[in-house]
Amino acid sequence: AEGVSRIALLTGRAAAFSGGARRLPPGAWLADRDDLDEVMRSLREFRGVSAIVYDQICATEKRRLRRRGTRFVDEPAVLINERICDDCGDCSVQSHCSAVRQVGTPFGPRRRIDSSTCNTDLSCVDGYCPSFITIENAQLRARSAPPRLSAPPPERLAALPEPRRAALPLSRPFGIVLAGVGGSGLVTTAALLAAAALREGLTVSQLDNTGLARKGGEVTTHLRLSAGAPIEGSTRIPESGADLLIGGDLASAAAPRVLALLAAGARAVLTTDATPMLEQVLDPDLPMPTRAWHASVRARLGADAITGVDGTAIATRRLGDTLYASVVVLGAAVQSGFVPVSPAAVEQAIREHGVAVEHNLAAFAWGRLAAIGPEAEEADETFDAPSAVGGRKSPAAAGHGRAWDDWQAAASFFADELVRYQDRSLSERYLALVRRVADAEQQAGGTAGSLALAAARNVYDVLAVKDEYEVARLATDAAFLASLRSEYGPGARPHFHFAPAWLAPRATADGRRRKLRFGPWIIVVLRVLALLRPLRGTLFDPFAHQAERVAQRRFTTLYCDGLARVADTLDAGGVVAALEFARLPEQVRGYGPVRMPRLQAALRAAEESLRRLDARGVGAQEKGTR
What we know:
Layout: E1 4-11, E2 28-32, H1 36-44, E3 49-55, H2 59-68, E4 77-80, H3 90-95, E5 100-105, E6 108-113, E7 132-136, H4 141-144, H5 154-158, E8 174-181, H6 186-199, E9 203-209, E10 218-226, E11 242-247, H7 250-253, H8 256-259, E12 262-271, H9 278-282, H10 290-301, E13 306-309, H11 311-319, H12 325-335, H13 343-353, H14 357-371, H15 374-377, H16 407-421, H17 424-445, H18 450-463, H19 468-475, H20 478-488, E14 493-498, E15 516-518, H21 522-531, H22 547-569, H23 575-582, H24 592-625
Parallel strand pairs: 1-2, 1-3, 8-11, 11-12, 12-13
Antiparallel strand pairs: 4-7, 5-6, 7-14, 8-10, 9-10, 14-15
């Protein structure tokens, strides 16, 4: 009727259309969502009007139904073995999903699945990486039981001063803007605040702007409160009509259209965490502009009007789920005296809401404690949620790409890891080269610092390449498998997703191989493969002649020999160039077709750096002979 001659219906997991292609009318055909590119190319050649219908449930609604246990409870959980992950970012390229988060580890930044926001889309598994594991028969806490609960001690809550209430304007309603991302509980938090205001006898209007909330889209809620008088006009807060900004996400709170709503003298309570934007999701090296966001809010309100609270970290640490972060921020806002309702009214609203009552009460209480100072909330040094990876704990703090500040501690840690990776001989070779660089830096500049630290980190990376043997060792690590049983229940069945070059068929024109799914039985095979690591690099190594392995051995030799030459010729004027060379391995990440272009680029860069080093040495010799 509308003149559309061809229609492609793309379906995936949890699609509403459950019939076959025979149920479709003439001119329409059924395809999988993974075939989107092929379908678009086909329709591009079609003369006439065509349409693509994408059939998939809203991600936020799917998470909600799964948490309630009404649907999708049997879907597999997905996680990343962070020791196998190389932070190449290909999983984010394939999925564009904000649930794939970058986290700091002693081995550098890695990727982790945030189970609180994961919608089991599973497109991240398509990333060309062997670190992904799906868990069948999972009894994940977030699905089958409430997350862990750590409530504040009653005596600490009793010691909190009763906060004052914000004064209501006489000429207009009191405006509150809540800004965050979809699926973070922000709308529920707004509803709790609205219910508390009603209990206090206030007139309330609420407008939820959910928009494109799928996969972390921006969400705002406008609350207008009045002392009994009817609220006239729109439920939307006009420009300069908001007295308080509650930011569940820093990027959303700093958006120009949100800041324009704030009146002169308004206050803001913001979480210090920000959901990665698409640019950061696709490029793991691109930092988030958190300073610019902070500056935008300060420019609008002034530094004294802003209260920061790390709601995401508190919710993760105390409650095991980032979903409670918005309630934490609400608690900080109430305790700071920026809201015209009492803590008791909010607590009663939580009880009447009847969903995860104890957890929401605890989140609200932790937010109140955080408002009077971080020391009131913090009881330990843990920041990140426990990672499902085995191995000993590192003394390094988990940072964003830089977990060490002492080269000797880093070298000792990585030397022990190399013994587990291969043998003590490799570990001693590592220590000898790192100490050689550290001694040279000390002689050139007086202290061993950034160059020695870069060498400690990157020499380990080029020696401990995650080949087939190492992936097998890390995948079958006893502590890692024990953590899976603890996290997902004793009946959980892990499935591994690999693309072995000797088995997986080619799937795309760029040389990628189709990933295959292996059940728990593969653990036995992987354990045997891990025991064969003494064959690594020998004549009996069946993987030695793969193109990636050949190129990697060439880079490892070039880098280690070049670093030794850098150390032997280092002087005060060459430290910057030496540091640039020492950090070359940082750009080599990933596996297979993701890794190879980066590896080839690093090889070219290393050769060019060494040529400049040789030219510099020749020039110095000629200058000395004049």
